[in-house]
Specification:
With about 375 residues, the chain is an alpha/beta fold. The chain contains 14 helices and twelve strands. The protein has two domains: about 240 residues, Aspartate Aminotransferase, domain 2; about 130 residues, Aspartate Aminotransferase, domain 1 (Alpha-Beta Complex). The chain is globular and about 75 Å long.
Amino acid sequence: MSDGQSLKPRTLAAQALRRMDETTGGVVPPIHVATTYQRDQDNAYSKGYTYARPDNATVRHAEAVIAALEGAAGALLFASGMAAISAVFVGLPKGARVVASTVMYTGSRNFLDQECPRLGLDVERVDTSELEGLERAASAAPTALVYVETPGNPLWTIVDIAAAARIARRAGALLVVDSTSATPILTRPLALGADIVVHAATKYLNGHSDVVAGALAFAREDDTMARIARVRQIFGGILSPFDAHQLTRGMRTLPLRVEAQSRTAMDLAHRLTGHPLVARVYYPGLPDHPGHEVAARQMTGGFGGMMSLGVKGGERAAIATAAAVQVWTRATSLGGVESLIEHRASMEGEGTPCPPNVLRLSVGLEDPDDLYDDLDAALRAGASA
C-alpha cells in the first residue's frame, strides 16, 4: 500500500510523504544518480536496488507520491506520457481487442491508429461519453481493454468513469483512464472502478513546463502491473533521477495550482459564454455542457483549467485571435503556471476531431481579469483581421 493514505491530498502533496535526507536531516531528499549498486557478499541486493534502468530511489519516491495521491496500490514513472501510454498497449498480447475514446490527445490517437495495428491489436474507436455505444462496442467481441480520456482533449468531453468501469467488467476488460487534465485533485478514477490511471506528468503533475514525464497508477499490484514494469525495463523508458526530483517538487503545489486554475477557468468560461465573438465555450463546468452532470458527480473541487473556444468567423478569425494575444502564450502544452493558447486543428493535422474555429486554452495562474481582457482584445483584433 502507498504511504499516508489517511492524509488529505494537500498534506500528501506538500510534504511529499515526508521523505527526507537520512544523512543530513535535510527536508528535501537528495537526487540519487548512481547507475549501478554494490552486491552483498552473498551476491544478493539486500537494499533492493540492482541497476538504474529499473531501480532508482528518486524515481521510486515520485512514484510513491503519485500512488498516494491516486489512492493506488502502486505507480510507475516513464520518460514521457506517450512512453507510459504505449507501455500499456505493448504489454497486451497480440490479437487483443481495445475499445477507445474518439476524442483524445492527438498523440494517443495517432498511436492507436498507426502503431497498434502493427502490434497486432484490434482497436475500435467510439464515443465513450455515450454509454450505450460503449456497451455495444465492448460486448461485440472479446475485449481486453477499454481506454478512455476524461475530460477528453481538446473538446473536454466527459466519460462516466463508474459506468465505464461496470461496462468493462461485464466485458472482462480492464478500464484505463487518462486523467491528465483532471489530475488526482479533481478526480480519482481508481475509486470509481478504473484499473489503471494514465498521466502525462509533463502537464499538471509537474506544472512548470520544465519536465517531460508520464505515469501509470494501478488499482492492484498484479500481473498487469508487473507486465508493464517489464515492458518499461526492456524498452528503457524510465524517467531520469533529475526529472523525477523536479516532478516531486512540482507535485508539492499541485492542489493549490489546480484549485486556482479551476476557479479562473470557470470565471473565464462564464464571461466568454456571452462574448459576441465567441460561438461556443467548451468547458465541463458550464451547465449547458453535455457532460456537466456527470462531471459534477465525479469531479470534486472544480472542473479543471482546460477549456476551448469556438470563434465566430471560422478558422481565419481563430488563428488571427491567437496571433494577437499579449498575456497568453502561443504554445503547445497544458497544465503549467503560464496560460497557453493554441489553434488545435493546425497542430493535430489530418483526422483531428477538433473544429477549425476552435482555440484550446490552458489556464494558468495569472490574474483572471488580465487573461479575460487580453482574450477580449485578441478576439476583436481577430475579427477585423
